[in-house]
């Protein structure tokens, strides 16, 4: 097998999976998914080499797991034991930025911050900010990544216009194009987005870029009357058409952890730090309009029960938004044993938080919450060192979310961490369809078999 | 078979396909697709009756074509000969409008204008305006309908959050939910959108609603220097972040036809009527901002070569936008033999128009053009009574669009009209995948076999 892979990508780009130098590549950032033991790690340089790797692996009856930057939180890039781990690290070129059509064509290994900076040179932005800007484009397509700005711009799915991808049988497919819209057969672009390397390996991505919005205002509103008031405020803000670019919920302990991890002092009165916080950023083309909207926002928040409305100075605002983006690292540093990425209807966020905390209490688990409130996407940090109690807590939390009309993942994906939750809690008919689709595209189970829909 | 269908939906809701009373239901509005000869037409009342019809048809080896309002332009709702034509006309209830989550839950037979009016009572709007507001929600999901407002809001795909649907084997599946985002397995919602009744029959739709924007300004800019200048202006308008709610191109003859059909006199100087026209509407929450943006827009258009920039009074603006929405009827009344719905990169619109007209000239066909310029979605009217010359013109036009990076349909769908163009011009690898997906979901070919991916 080594020789077949060396023929595919060059011997200098194949390393045995048990080589200590590749140990860091054998897992992503998912807390509950142990590192895999791949047989080999390979670094193809282009589409043809990806095809050759897939063909070699399939011929040998070995599976392939794709890896971008390894920043995923569900274990989708964690290889199955014995698999070929295919890193896209060498396929990291921005092929084109077209400011007229406002699109970029990139290889899957390009990092989000690299693309965003390159777009910025044309007055444009790629607004998918999933919290880790070193994430790769390919990885974010695989997970349909979201993040704080999805409340305004939508998730990855809303930005990908076309793909080039390699199927399990080595066929190269091209979907979509530099096209703002398309209705020409089933949308294969959309089918591949979020499929976590199980239907095809993406080798090129065409994304939509957006005009950069230079004006910005950020307010922080602590609520002392419970998360219900936060949920109601979010509905009003979105419903008024204020189109926030960030609309985040943080409970008191998460706010403490986030600020501590970022060494950030906001100067809140101590009795308000433990409140339920709503962090809202407005962005626009013109300063005076954003200022006017910020006043409307502050009035709305006050009328709906905010204990205070703090107009954050630009520097503090930027640091707090960045710190919130890094909340995963903050709660990880604080010892969280698992994180949850459930999504519920926007209006059900407070109810879900309440039920999740009750589940935690029943199992002696500590449950902290924050989330993309404008999207109903709740991130919980669960502290419970006992594996059985942790599993019971998670099961109860997932069941509570589904009972409220939710889904197991809003933006992190299913990966290996949530495959059994999805299988247990998803719609049986829909899951059966997805399994049939998977079998139709990858009948031999070559692509990331331990991941996603099983 | 009659009895089986009568058992499914009640005898009073089954009519033989050759009954004169159902003749109008045997085709949609596609110009080049002849009416089908269904064996029966049925009107189920609910999901269970849809399941029963599908099961009865499959058991008898008869196919099923779904029909919404019959306003489609690709023949997707035209039944195959001998099929059961399943009308969703009785499943026309709005089940819920939830202003807090800004979602609506509707049956597939609900008309767009009915939903939009109901949303309006809550200060909300459903912004999919494909040009025919009597279109049904189910039909617009089936075709992934777009329309003039897609340049701001996106096409149907961007608004559908969840579906209930009946598969070919009678299974009921539920996808998505009242969820702003989701990443929980392959996105079955997105796979079913645009599948034109070939993968499943949609029995319930959850859509996202948007805040109504009360302020509006509309300008009309004739360009006498060719369509290139229009294309350049569109790029600048979108790139500046003006976020137009309408951004339409009309060539001179189409403008004449549209105004004549609507009995609309704009008072343009005669020498400007035959220019290339750009019609741009801005919408927003506040009048003064929209006015300010309209000035910026007018300055941009003048600087980029518009011969004049007319600020349309509200009444004329509304009538012209409505008349443009009805352009299909105008060119049909003028004797058009076929219409084309190609999409190309936004910057390639003028090049495509030029090539399409050259193809027309080569075959003695008259080719008029208009389109959703902000999306690169070009609608051509082709006048050519000779079938062979018409087919040659269409073939050349489709090939020209594909060569520019386009796709055979931007928003009308493939249906029966474009199935052979897609099969000939689509990416072979991608088409093979879509055929495998279709076979996996409908192995017996029960659902609309003559339509879409074949």
Largest β-sheet summary of chain A = 7 strands, antiparallel
CATH class categorisation of the largest domain in chain A: Alpha Beta
Number of strands of chain A: 18
Shape of chain A: globular
The proportion of residues forming helix of chain A, as a percent range, comes to: 25-40%
Determine the N-to-C terminus distance of chain A.
27 Å
Which chains share the greatest interface?
A-B, 91 and 91 residues
- Secondary-structure arrangement, i.e. CATH architecture of the largest domain in chain A: 2-Layer Sandwich
DSSP helical segment count of chain A: 16
What is the CA-atom radius of gyration of chain A, in angstroms? 22 Å
Oligomer: homodimer
Which regions of chain A have little confidence, pLDDT < 50, spanning 5+ residues? none
What structural category do the secondary elements of chain A indicate?
A: alpha+beta
Report the mean per-residue pLDDT of chain A as an integer. 96
Strand content of chain A: 15-25%
CATH topology of the largest domain in chain A: Uridine Diphospho-n-acetylenolpyruvylglucosamine Reductase, domain 3
**Domains of chain A (count):** 4
Keywords (chains A, B): FAD, Flavoprotein, Oxidoreductase
Domain FAD-binding PCMH-type (chains A, B): 34-212
Cofactor (chains A, B): FAD
Pfam families (chains A, B): FAD-oxidase_C (PF02913), FAD_binding_4 (PF01565)
Question: What does it look like?
Answer:
The structure is a homodimer of 454-residue chains. Chain A has 454 residues and is an alpha+beta fold. The first copy, chain A, folds into four domains: 2-87, 2-Layer Sandwich (Uridine Diphospho-n-acetylenolpyruvylglucosamine Reductase, domain 2); 94-211, Uridine Diphospho-n-acetylenolpyruvylglucosamine Reductase, domain 3; 215-328, Alpha-Beta Plaits (2-Layer Sandwich); 335-433, Alpha-Beta Plaits (2-Layer Sandwich). Chain A has helices at residues 2-9, 47-59, 112-120, 137-143, 150-153, 188-192, 227-239, 252-262, 270-273, 287-303, 314-325, 327-333, 349-362, 387-403, 419-425, 428-441, and strands at 14-16, 40-42, 64-67, 84-87, 94-98, 103-106, 124-125, 160-167, 172-176, 200-208, 210-211, 215-223, 246-250, 276-284, 310-312, 338-340, 366-372, 377-383. In chain A, the strands form four sheets. A seven-stranded antiparallel sheet of chain A has the order 15-12-14-13-17-18-16, with helices on both faces. In chain A, a hairpin with a 4-residue loop joins strand 17 (366-372) and strand 18 (377-383). In chain A, helix 7 runs antiparallel to helix 13 (349-362), helix 8 (252-262) packs across helix 11 (314-325) and helix 13 (349-362) runs antiparallel to helix 14 (387-403). The first copy, chain A, is globular, with a radius of gyration of 22 Å. The two termini of chain A are 27 Å apart. At the A-B interface, strand 9, helix 6, strand 11, helix 7 and helix 16 of A face strand 9, helix 6, strand 11, helix 7 and helix 16 of B.
């Amino acid at each position: 097998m080594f020789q077949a892979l060396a023929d595919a990508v060059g011997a200098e780009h194949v390393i045995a999976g048990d080589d200590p130098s590749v140990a860091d590549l054998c897992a992503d950032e998912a807390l509950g998914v142990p590192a895999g033991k791949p047989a080999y790690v390979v670094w193809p340089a282009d589409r043809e080499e990806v095809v050759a790797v897939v063909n070699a692996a399939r011929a040998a009856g070995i599976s392939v797991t794709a890896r971008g930057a390894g920043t995923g939180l569900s274990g989708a890039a964690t290889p199955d034991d014995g698999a070929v781990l295919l890193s896209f690290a060498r396929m990291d070129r921005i092929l084109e930025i077209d400011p007229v059509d406002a699109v970029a064509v990139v290889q899957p290994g390009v990092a989000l911050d690299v693309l965003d900076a390159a777009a910025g040179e044309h007055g444009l932005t790629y607004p998918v900010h999933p919290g880790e800007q070193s994430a790769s484009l390919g990885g974010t397509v695989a997970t349909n990544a979201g993040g704080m700005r999805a409340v305004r711009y939508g998730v990855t799915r809303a930005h990908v216009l076309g793909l080039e991808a390699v199927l399990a049988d080595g066929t190269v497919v091209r979907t979509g194009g530099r096209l703002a819209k398309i209705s020409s057969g089933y949308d294969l672009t959309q089918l591949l987005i979020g499929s976590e390397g199980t239907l095809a390996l993406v080798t090129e991505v065409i994304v939509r870029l957006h005009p950069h919005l230079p004006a910005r205002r950020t307010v922080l509103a602590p609520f002392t009357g419970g998360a219900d008031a936060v949920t109601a405020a979010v509905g009003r803000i979105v419903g008024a058409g204020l189109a926030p670019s960030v609309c985040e919920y943080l409970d008191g302990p998460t706010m403490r952890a986030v600020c501590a991890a970022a060494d950030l002092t906001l100067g809140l009165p101590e009795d308000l730090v433990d409140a339920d916080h709503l962090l809202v950023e407005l962005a626009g083309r013109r300063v005076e309009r954003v200022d006017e909207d910020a006043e409307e926002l502050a009035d709305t928040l006050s009328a709906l029960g905010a204990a205070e409305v703090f107009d954050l100075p630009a520097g503090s605002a930027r640091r707090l938004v960045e710190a919130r983006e890094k909340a995963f690292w903050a709660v990880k540093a604080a010892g969280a044993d698992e994180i949850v990425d459930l999504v519920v209807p926007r209006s059900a966020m407070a109810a879900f938080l309440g039920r999740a905390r009750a589940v935690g209490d029943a199992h002696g688990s500590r449950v902290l919450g924050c989330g993309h409130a404008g999207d109903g996407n709740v991130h919980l940090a669960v502290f419970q060192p006992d594996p059985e109690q942790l599993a019971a807590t998670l099961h109860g939390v997932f069941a509570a979310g589904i009972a409220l009309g939710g889904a197991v993942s809003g933006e992190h994906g299913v990966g290996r961490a949530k495959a059994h939750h999805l299988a247990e809690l998803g719609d049986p008919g829909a899951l059966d369809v997805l399994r049939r689709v998977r079998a139709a595209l990858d009948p031999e189970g070559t692509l990331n078999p331990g991941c996603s829909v099983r």
